[in-house]
Design brief:
With about 350 residues, this protein is mainly α. The protein has 12 helices and 2 strands; from the N terminus they run αααααααααααββα. The protein has a two-stranded antiparallel ribbon with strand order 1-2. The longest helix is centred in the middle third of the chain and has 32 residues. About 0% of the residues have low confidence.
Amino acid sequence: MDLTVLWFCIVGFLFVGYFVLDGFDFGVGMSLPFLGRDDTDRRVLINTIGPVWDLNETWVIVAGAALFAAFPEWYATLFSGFYLPLLLILLALILRGVSFEYRHQRPEQAWKRRFDRMIVIGSAVPAFLWGVAFSNIVAGVPLDANHDYIGTFFDLLNPYALLGGLTTLLLFFTHGVVFVSLKTEGDIRERARRLATRAGVVTIVVAAAFLLWTSIAYGTLASVLLSVVAAVTLIGAVLANARGREGVAFGLMAATIGVAVLSLFFALFPDVMPASNDPANSLTITNASSSEYTLTIMSWVALIFLPLILAYQGFTYWIFRKRVTRAQIPAEASVGGGQEAH
């Protein structure tokens, strides 16, 4: 396999991993107003992702580093042209991480509610803006002959991209609520299952509209087939959740998000940043890539370290596989040590 194609696949794999894993983190964060009837409920929700949220978030760092090293021209155009939305994503992620660490540092409910609101915002903003960003990448943006973005921030907020943002927001929300039902017991588990069913129906409608638009306007045979698979697994996830099979539902939701992201990469290939104004200005895997030597060295590094990273993450999930219950939450939140978010 050509190394540029290989690294396009690796970058796609890293973003698939990020959206699947950090996606349910975003969903859990967004679920606080819907499932957190009291502070104990909210602490249960946060503790479901406490041991893994920061590990999940590192996938985007690795994806960004791989993008920078393998496709520097793509990285430069993307991060300069999409500077404001990516900055907003970064600030939201910082806000969310700080909130996980600080909400339990004082006992006052007003203090905790402020950080809970920041968790919701810090989860919803990236969930929406990642969809906007990737939709624009697939649809293409105006580029000059030097591959510099010549549009404005508001050009990125076009109807197709906004629909893409709404799709990722709803997918992540449903994914997170299904995860809550998988990781909790009792009343909160039942409420999460009911909420996931209702949210899932809305998600099916919105995601179907987005995948249909993508397939008609930008799709290839492979991306269309993957979109069909994503639609089937999404419907299966909602049905499995409605029948109380949370494990199956979560697996199918993960498959839905993974396959949907893959369909976008297949629709994009061999471009990495299409130019909507002039195809001659488009970035492709060829004119955006690093040298053959750089890609060769990176391939050996990935061959050695990627399996180790996957094994470590799998081990972490296995260790923290047990359900979280209200009975496990102490009467008073511990001060210091970050116990609710680690």
